[in-house]
Amino acid sequence: MKKNLRFYVAFYLAKLARWALKVLRRNASYFPGKLAITICPDFLGRIDKPKTIIGVTGTNGKTTVCNLLEEALRRNGYELIDNHLGSNVNSGVASSLIETADSKGRQKREIAVFELDERSAVKIYPYMQPTFLLCTNLFRDSLKRNAHTEFIFNILDKSIPKETKLILNGDDLLVSNLAKENERVYFGIDRLETDEDTCHNIVQDISVCPNCSSRLEWDFVRYNHIGRAHCSKCDFCSPQMDYEVTKIDFEKEIMIIKHKGTEETYPIMNDNIINIYNVLAVISVLKEMGLTKEQIDKGLEGQKIVDTRYSEEMINGIKVVTHLAKGLNPIACSRVFDYVRKQPGNKAVIMILDNLHDAATSSENTAWQYDTDYEFLNDDSIKQILMAGARYLDGLVRLEIADVDKDKIVAKRKELELVQDLNLEAIDKVFILHDLHSTELRDKIKEQVREKIEKERK
């Protein structure tokens, strides 16, 4: 699309709005793009884009993957456009392009990394065709916003441009079948000792063959519908992996990745399988971009999962862990619950999972709690569960359905009153599980935990 008068009016007004917001010390990451698209609906198609665009989409892991990928590229001398501080919908992408464009709307940088919301595909891909599109996974998310995995799959499947090369999680049977006509590569993790032959989760969103509707036979199940399977009645099966983790050494914190017959060793950064997938995804993108092993090592060296997602600190002999567990997202919460129960030692778990926006302004659909594996918290190593928030009673009911011992549970309305009931006797670890929008609360609760430990464990 060529630039027209409407485009330039929208562009200059958006630039002016961005400048004004900066002067006022306000966040300028969303509004300028929204203003531009309101004035010029096809603005995203008319503004110049960089030569290479890397899109990252999927239910979980987008932000972590983008953070790691952007840092790795910058360490190798790439100047990037990103929406790291903006929204992942069309207006956030537009704001990022406006910020780095010169006075004529021309881009000064040749590469972009954009986190892209799955539902926004219909508003982004007609105007911006990614060179590479990475899809991390497709899971159930907020029922109000994302409905169901098939709904999101269909949006992506119909919207992804045919020119885009796909980098797909081959262990996700939904993701691996996206946009079948597109050029693609797959990444995955070979069977681990902890994998099962059957699914132990409440939810498994693909259990029959999408071609002939026969029941799938699983080669192994890692969690939910992540794993590898085949159909006994037709030729449907999990794809062959282009980038495959063949071994993970958790003690040395390394993994071996096989690609085109060659094996290379990389760091895992974190022992949670979700984050191992995230690091594998980043390496797959960098390889597809043509970076060498030495460049990738340089890009990843010393990186870690950002503190907003995961942090740990030893305080007077007790490890305090903060871990994002996105409210309204049953798979994300189930993964965290599973991770907590499998960690060694005795644990206390503090849960603040309410989505604060929904808690303040709407009537939340609590059905997601019944897709979440609260049963994983019914574990002898978990000595206490402390839960608070606007809908703490819903969580309490769900814990009781999971048959968690009532004597282990503390449930209150006010989050900042929880820590006074924390029992540190014989506790090795305290986990603080928090929603995406509860970081301020998380920090206050962590400070309360610190004070309690320092007082009682001198």
SSE layout:
Elements: H1 5-23, H2 31-39, H3 43-46, E1 52-57, H4 62-75, E2 80-82, H5 90-100, E3 111-115, H6 121-124, E4 132-135, H7 143-146, H8 149-159, E5 165-169, E6 184-189, E7 216-223, E8 226-231, E9 243-249, E10 254-259, E11 262-267, H9 273-288, H10 293-300, E12 310-315, E13 318-324, H11 330-342, E14 347-352, H12 356-361, E15 382-388, H13 392-401, E16 409-412, E17 429-434, H14 439-456
Parallel strand pairs: 1-3, 1-4, 2-3, 4-5, 5-6, 6-9, 13-17, 14-15, 14-17, 15-16
Antiparallel strand pairs: 7-8, 9-10, 10-11, 12-13
Helix pairs in contact: 1-2, 2-5, 4-9, 4-10
Architecture overview:
This protein folds into 2 domains: 5-186 and 271-300, 3-Layer(aba) Sandwich (UDP-N-acetylmuramoyl-L-alanine:D-glutamate ligase); 310-452, Protein-Tyrosine Phosphatase, Chain A (Alpha-Beta Complex), CATH 3.90.190. The protein contains 14 helices and 17 strands. The chain has helices at residues 5-23, 31-39, 43-46, 62-75, 90-100, 121-124, 143-146, 149-159, 273-288, 293-300, 330-342, 356-361, 392-401, 439-456, and strands at 52-57, 80-82, 111-115, 132-135, 165-169, 184-189, 216-223, 226-231, 243-249, 254-259, 262-267, 310-315, 318-324, 347-352, 382-388, 409-412, 429-434.
Judging by the overall fold, what is the CATH architecture of the largest domain? 3-Layer(aba) Sandwich
Strand tally is 17
Mean pLDDT, rounded to whole units? 95
Helix content: 25-40%
Number of helices: 14
* Integer tally of domains: 2
